[in-house]
Fold this protein.
Amino acid sequence: MENLPNKKIKASKLNSIDGLELIPVKLEHILISPDNHTFALIAGDDKDIAIPLNSYEGSMLSFVFKGLHKSSHINTIHQLFVKFISDQNTKIESIYLESKVGDIIYASVHFVDVKHRRFYSICSLIDALILSLINKTQLYVVKNAWEKIDSFDDWQYDEFIVDWSNE
């Protein structure tokens, strides 16, 4: 222990935790533009955002958003996953949208098992939205990531088809 250098950490060099605040968000609608591009409209306290979806993501999200997965004769991969973790005595505890890098939004799904062991996994935004709908889990976003995403108010959305119904 004598050979270790004595270093002091200056408080001014530590990162602030202000940007790590969690903001509750909700998938409000699925939008379809006149040129058939699909967007997920996510609402927070201070703004709404629209995330572009590819055709597969848009179809899967719409299927779950409208509640059609409940009466489907074939389970989606997300339903199979939720059933599998349930069989393993594990449940989804929380879901966070954690960061935005370029055009990609990363999310984390936090799990807890019957022995109260906690673990998490990183997934895509769409998988997080679908899992939160299936599991009826509140979705949160980290403030730093939320501030990096452009507000939907800046868009021209008069001509969009809005999927108003949710389940």
